[in-house]
Each structure stands twice: as C-alpha cells, then as structure tokens.
Amino acid sequence: MDTEKPFVDIRHAQKSYGSLEVLKDISLKVNRGEIVAIIGPSGSGKSTLLRAINDLDPLTGGEVWLEDVQVNKTLPHRQYEKHINHVRQNIGMVFQHFNLFPHLNVRENITLAPRMLKGLTVDEANTLAEEQLDKVGMLERIDYYPSQLSGGQKQRVAIARALAMKPKVMLFDEATSALDPELVEEVNLVMKKLAEEHMTMIIVTHEMGFAESVCDRVLFMDQGVVVEEGPPSVIFRNPENERTKNFLRKHL
Ligand code: ADP
Ligand code: MG
After folding, report:
1. What is the pTM assigned to this prediction?
2. 47 lines ligand 1 (CB under 6 A)
3. Hey, whose CA ends up nearest to atom 26 of ligand 1?
4. Is 219 within 8 Å of 28 (Cβ atoms)?
5. What is the pLDDT of residues 227-237, one digit of tens each?
6. How many CB atoms lie within 10 A of CB 194?
7. What residue's CA is closest to ligand 1, atom 6?
8. Is 205 in the pocket of ligand 1 (CB under 6 A)?
C-alpha cells in the first residue's frame, strides 16, 4: 500500500499559451527516491511540465506541490520571490544546453549559489564543490573555465552544481541530447550513480534504453496529455496505446 506522501505532486496541471493548450489536465505524483522518465514527441509539453515544477513556466490551472509546500501559489510580489527562491533551492535542474556561467571557473560556478543563497563560508563552499566534483569525476578540472571543457564535462559540472544545493529532487530536460554521441555515456553514468543513491529524479529523455535501465516509471506524453504510464518493462515492451506503439516504433 502506498501511504507515503508524494515528494512532487502535480495536480490537474493545465497550461495555455493564448489559445494553444499545451498541458491538458496532467496529474503526476512522484515519491521519495522514485525515478520517473517522461518521453514523447517534440512539442508534446514535456519541457513545459518540467518547468512548471519550479514555476519557471507558471501553470494556468492546477497545482504543484513539493512535500508540504504549494509551489505555484499566488502571493504579493515580494513574498512570492522569497517563497520561490526557497522552493528552487530544493529543486536541481539540468537542461539540454549547459547553463554554466562562462566567466566563472568550475569552482566558482559551483560555490556561487551555496555562498549567496545558503550563506556558506568560502571554505565550506569549496569543500562542497570538491565533494560534488569528485562525484561526477570532474575534480581535476576545478580551475578550468567552461570554454575549456567538452560538452559532456560541462554537463557533469552542471549536475555537480545542482547537487551542491542538496536538492530534494533533480529534474533533467534532455540533458544529453545536445551532446556528441561519444559523450552521452559519461553523463548517463553520473545519472545512474544518482539513481543508485536513490535521488528523486524526473528525467525527460529521448534515450529509451537509458530510461528503461534507470527509471522506475515511464510516462508517455503526446499533445499535452499523459497517454500512458507504467513500469518500463510494460511501456517499452508491451504498450497498450496506439500512439505509444507508434512513437516507440520510431524511437526504440
Ligand atoms: P516538448 O518539450 O515536449 O518538446 P514543449 O513543452 O517545449 O514540448 O512545448 C509544448 C508546446 O508549447 C509546443 O507546441 C510549443 O510550441 C509550445 N510552447 C512552448 N513554450 C511556448 C511559449 N513560450 N509560447 C508559446 N508557445 C510555447
Ligand atoms: Mg522539450
């Protein structure tokens, strides 16, 4: 029996851009330590849903909860800023295009937020940066600048930077799809390691093999709805819905 309170609870998410409805009543609960993959064609609303979780793309209807806190609540501007900054500290996000600060070296990229937002001392932040870089196998590049790193290395630093905030959940939006094929595996390995440590993760991906090997549950989205969801063994091997079958024929 599932008595655990979900970590992430998306309730009846609805999002429109003008007359275009891109999320149509989507509900998703993710438990602590659960790893959920979201797959689906381009334009189906995957990024919009992920970005709604930390209110980067505010919903036009429905609610997002992170544990006991409603993320997308209406507050006066100042209170909202304070609220959302706090919420976002708990949510690590890694995008397709590495968003490292180009003028900061790796160490500075990682220590900035823990120092500014959590008030860590330089020494504390450095120790944290070294721990996280070690975890992603990038410790020896701590003094490099982003321009001196490969795409895979940048993405590993981006993951370390997110982890340095000790997030409760990690969101990945096609973290490997801008990488040269030979660089994908090093990033996937880092994500697999996080999975083994039971980090709660929501992963938007085009890599079906990776999703199958790492995730507990897979959601197939199309045109703003969750068409089908289930364990990877079912979704990838024995999907019921015609749209899922069609999509997988092209992507497996
Ligand atoms: P996916 O990540 O699955 O490719 P998206 O969430 O990026 O899909 O986009 C879903 C739909 O929303 C698409 O039709 C896209 O064109 C539209 N969309 C996304 N962002 C905006 C925006 N800022 N303004 C208008 N339409 C948008
Ligand atoms: Mg997308």
Report:
1. 0.95
2. yes
3. 17
4. yes
5. 999 999 999 99
6. 21
7. 45
8. no
